[in-house]
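Issue: ligand-bound run for nicotinamide-adenine-dinucleotide - logging full I/O for the record.

Environment: standard queue, default settings, no custom constraints.

Inputs:
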Amino acid sequence: MESIAVIGTGLIGRAWAMVFARAGHPVRLFDQAPGAADKALELIREALVETRRFGLIDEEPDVVLARIRPAASLAEAVADADYVQENTSEREDVKREVFSQLDAAAPAHCILASSTSTIQTSRFASHVAGRHRCLVAHPVNPPHVVPIVELSPAPFTSPEVVERARVLHERAGQVPILVRKEVEGFILNRLQAALLIESWRLVDEGYVSVEDLDKTIRDGLGLRWAFMGPFETIDLNAPGGVADYAQRYGPHLYRMMQGVTSRPWEGELVTRVEKERREHMAHEEHAEREAWRDRRLMALVAHKRAMDKDEG
Ligand SMILES: NC(=O)c1ccc[n+]([C@@H]2O[C@H](COP(=O)([O-])OP(=O)(O)OC[C@H]3O[C@@H](n4cnc5c(N)ncnc54)[C@H](O)[C@@H]3O)[C@@H](O)[C@H]2O)c1
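Outputs:
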């Protein structure tokens, strides 16, 4: 199995360590904050116990944990690495510096991937000699539960590196997609932004309450979206498939969204949405509700896996 180095052991770095270790990879952890990597091991153990409860790992948590070892320096963490997943602070200057260090210390064949949510590969890796081996591998929080990973190379990234990264993620149980051209927000966050912009607008202009809008996704569109995307959805929603759908409904949907404008989320609008949300969840319940969300997600992922297995 390829050796993996995880740089930065916050929320995302810890989750990546679990993804790779449960797939059988040896994992080295490095974080610049003193004691952070050791602390990460404790948190990883707790999370592994939870995922085991939902059947998302096949082995005992301690067996998976034994594959993860802290390193005393970045150079030590990447010395024998075949693949690096970088998860440091979301700042361009930090990423540029860390990628300089990674390029200097990692073996020549090693892939250097960043979890960045917003910074294109061209912006953090163009200055390093080994830029052909750099790319974004953007996860969704938490990647040990939600498997999508957006691979976003720069024009200078080698196609062979992208392919090796794709195969590695797929073997680790993730679902890699390829962002063919660099674009702000990659794919997932652009889709999320489009839906959020329209959601805020519908509430702002008084068409629907916050809770009813949430129900529309939770008990409507979202049910399908847990197992099929919008293109498959419309392909099945017209007897003649996607071309038939485009002909029947395309002009109407297109007209409906023409001239739609949005305004920034601020002032009275935010106060109103905040008030409506607090009627359904007090601030004090935030952490408890987050834990509930993660349990629901794990149960959903376990269900999807079982269904996929049943259906061969
Ligand atoms: N949190 C999310 O929902 C999410 C989702 C997808 C992607 N990401 C991306 O993942 C990355 C990490 O995010 P996070 O939420 O885990 O952040 P975090 O603040 O929880 O963790 C960042 C860690 O990096 C360490 N660090 C900072 N500079 C370092 C350096 N030079 N060398 C080594 N370690 C360093 C910090 O000590 C900290 O432990 C970011 O690029 C972020 O955009 C986050």
